[in-house]
Specification:
The strands form two sheets. Strands 6-5-4-3-2-1-10-11 form an eight-stranded mixed sheet, with helices on one face. It has a six-stranded mixed sheet with strand order 7-8-9-12-13-14. The protein has ten helices and 14 strands. It has a single domain (2-91, 99-262), classed as 4-Layer Sandwich (Metallo-beta-lactamase, Chain A). With 266 residues, the protein is α/β, with parallel strands linked by helices.
Length: 266
């Protein structure tokens, strides 16, 4: 049975441990120690690190994980010069098999050039949330779904800043993710949902679904103290950046919203 385990790293980062029987992979490990600690009781062998983009808080654990386990490092070929120890170069548009799991590689450039997401069509039998300061909690409602590992391309009720790309690229990346199976788990790399919902309510004060999500957030996070993963259907209904894709000029609408969020005081 496929298992998804959230691992809190640094102050608000998340790594994702995927365990499929005897094999495991981890997505965006900011640190090695919490990954190795959580891997040990599974008894699985770490086959690979999956990297969504080159930022330090996504690759910081790679050196130590490779030294400890000999795992492969999978990432976008075009970021070969800035992802440490990259050993399996993939290209957007291809499907790659990692630890026995077929993963579709999606171009979601914008936050960085070369940012990719990985779509896993296999459904997760068990999903465990574990936020910062919370306790690991199995969330039955989230089981039985495929997953999107999106890095910093999409967050709960928000999206990553534009560091290298254009608003056109950001709108295209969001549209790529919005077109996936709506039941997908959205496995992003940060716990930013509460702050993003404050901005979402300021941007769209009359939006009932956004207000309901904000009101229910504490209950949603529960003992795990985590709002992640969310589901794509939830993001499609409440994420202002995905809602902006319905505008007549989506790139302009997404770009304007992103610029306002950059200076929004939470
Ligand atoms: Zn980043």
């Amino acid at each position: 049975m496929l298992e998804l385990i959230q691992i809190p790293c640094l102050t608000d980062n998340y790594a994702w441990l995927v365990v499929d029987g005897a094999q495991a992979l981890v997505v965006d490990p900011a640190e090695a120690a919490p990954v190795l600690d959580r891997l040990a009781p599974t008894g699985a062998r770490l086959a690979a690190v999956l990297v969504t983009h080159h930022h330090d808080d996504h690759v910081g654990g790679i050196d130590e994980l490779v030294a400890a386990t000999g795992c492969a490092v999978v990432g976008n070929a075009r970021d070969g010069g800035r992802i440490p120890r990259l050993s399996r170069r993939v290209d957007p548009g291809q499907t790659t098999v990692v630890a026995g799991l077929p993963l579709e590689v999606l171009d979601v450039s914008g936050h960085t050039l070369g940012h990719v997401a990985y779509a896993c069509a296999r459904r997760f039998g068990v999903v465990r949330r574990h936020g910062h300061g919370g306790s690991e909690t199995e969330v039955a409602r989230l089981a039985g779904r495929p997953a999107l590992f999106v890095g910093d391309a999409l967050f709960g009720a928000g999206c990553g800043r534009l560091f290298e790309g254009t608003k056109e690229m950001l709108a295209a990346a969001l549209a790529t993710l919005a077109a996936r199976n709506p039941s997908s788990l959205v496995c992003c790399a940060h716990e930013y949902t509460a702050a993003n919902l404050r901005f979402a309510q300021a941007a769209l004060p009359d939006h009932a679904a956004i207000r309901a999500r904000a009101l229910g957030l504490d209950e949603e996070m529960g003992a795990a103290k985590s709002s992640v993963p969310s589901t794509l259907e939830e993001e499609l209904a409440t994420n202002p950046f995905l809602l902006a894709l319905h505008d007549d000029e989506p790139a302009a609408a997404v770009g304007e919203l992103r610029a306002r969020k950059d200076v929004f005081a939470v």
